[in-house]
């Protein structure tokens, strides 16, 4: 019985040494992989945004189409930042200055539902600052858009 226990203890010690050696090798591989990952992360730079940050809009009607194109393009390439209508409207509001900023203040003061509806906000913006849908359609026909 004692001899069997000695043999069993010896077998366990041998197995323990083998597992300890394997564990050490795995830890060394893990250390190397972590170092390699850190090296690769230092080499990778996040891609720069292909669309420049939009310019502000002060209410000048002739700049409204450009403003909408710039903001829409910027939000499309950064869609993870603009995941809902409220975020999109807040972004547009942050770029309003002058007359356009004054125009939006009452909507903010009364916590208007339009602040959570991007399309409705755009339509109000267009209506207030002279975006003429019919004129746009005529230009498209004239230039073959």
TrEMBL record:
Domain DUF4939: 28-136
InterPro entries documented for this protein: DUF4939
Record Pfam families: DUF4939
Record's protein name: Protein LDOC1 isoform X3
Organism: Phyllostomus discolor
Gene name tied to this protein: LDOC1
């Amino acid at each position: 019985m004692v001899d069997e226990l000695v043999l069993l203890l010896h077998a366990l010690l041998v197995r323990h040494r083998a597992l300890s050696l394997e564990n050490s090798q795995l830890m060394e591989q893990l250390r190397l992989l972590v170092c390699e990952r850190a090296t690769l992360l230092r080499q990778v730079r996040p891609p720069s945004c292909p669309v420049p940050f939009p310019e502000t809009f002060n209410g000048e009607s002739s700049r409204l189409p450009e403003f909408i194109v710039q903001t829409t393009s910027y939000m499309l390439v950064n869609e993870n930042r603009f995941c809902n209508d409220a975020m999109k409207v807040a972004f547009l509001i942050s770029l309003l200055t002058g007359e356009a900023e004054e125009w939006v203040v009452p909507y903010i003061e009364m916590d208007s539902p339009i602040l959570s509806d991007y399309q409705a906000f755009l339509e109000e913006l267009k209506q207030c600052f002279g975006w003429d849908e019919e004129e746009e359609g005529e230009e498209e026909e004239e230039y073959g858009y």
